[in-house]
Amino acid sequence: DLYRKVFVFRKDPSDAFVLLGARLEQPLQNFTVCLRSYTDLSRPHSLFSYATKAQDNEILLLKPKPTEYRFYVGGKFVTFRVPEGRGDWEHVCAGWESATGVAEFWLNGKPWPRKGLQRGYTVGVEAAIMLGQEQDTFGGGFDFYNSFSGELSDVYLWDMALSPDKMRAAYLSLRLPPALLAWRSLSYQVKGDVVVKARLRE
């Protein structure tokens, strides 16, 4: 249980990552991924990377610059422009549904205008899921200048599009529905220079 804990990625740039274990039974027609990050990086960095053997950017949450998030599904992406952070934690949720091809993006509990992405696509399940690196091959192929440096927390992946109420609940750390990946019961392996520490403040 990583309640009130964080992963600290100490080095910049870094070859470190955290490998996550999820019990995925079937391909994903819908999903939501949420996490909190705290960093002073201005270069591109990968937050959440989900690769299959067929597609290295099956799901990817990447921050190419301080005023932009990129959300990939099946190798295609949409860009969400955001105000430059004020050196604080940022909570993001990205949701997608295959039937409509609608991609949602929430930053600190507020929704951004929805965009269209990969309608009719299905996300594969033989997945390597990791924090802190962007996979260019299944489970590897890192460019260290896309690595994350800083603190990550509150990582979740659901096999559904969360309702607006639940998106806000994720931001406020309230009760959440059962998830494929849940911070309170996370199966993970640390690879390289990453330390689990108590959160400095709420």
UniProtKB/TrEMBL annotation:
One of its GO terms (biological process) is innate immune response. Binds 2 calcium ions per subunit. It is found in: Secreted. It comes from the Eukaryota. Its main location: secreted. Its cofactor is Ca(2+). Residues 3-202 form the Pentraxin (PTX) domain. InterPro entries: ConA-like_dom_sf, Pentraxin_domain, PTX_dom. Disulfide bonds join 34-93. GO terms for molecular function: complement component C1q complex binding; metal ion binding. Belongs to the pentraxin family. Homopentamer. Pentaxin (or pentraxin) have a discoid arrangement of 5 non-covalently bound subunits. PANTHER family: C-REACTIVE PROTEIN, C-REACTIVE PROTEIN-RELATED. This is Pentraxin family member.
